[in-house]
Amino acid sequence: MPTAEAPFRLIANDIAARIRSGELKPGDKLPSTRELAETYGVHINTAYRAMSLLHDRELITGQPGRGTYVAEPPGQ
Question: Which domain covers residue 28, as residue numbers?
């Protein structure tokens, strides 16, 4: 029986697709984790896991006290 993809992966994949398409460009500020949770209708921990996954994929970077931004592509 097929299982649904975890919500945090769906969110991460959605944001990753927006980065790949150019809708989100390097240096663009992303919404806060709380804002993402509200937008996607999930618990804040789910949104945090999505952001953590994007960070692990090196698609975003965090700047303490400033926010989270789309990372520069590797090698630039």
Answer: 7-70
Q: What is the per-residue burial (b if ≥16 Cβ within 10 Å, else e) of 17-40? A: eebeeeebeeeeebeebeebbeeb
pLDDT digits (tens, 9 = 90+) for 2-42: 688 899 999 999 999 999 999 999 999 999 999 999 999 99
Q: Structurally, how many domains does the chain consist of?
A: 1
35, part of any domain: yes
CB 68 within 8 A of CB 51: yes
- Cβ(15)–Cβ(50) below 8 Å: yes
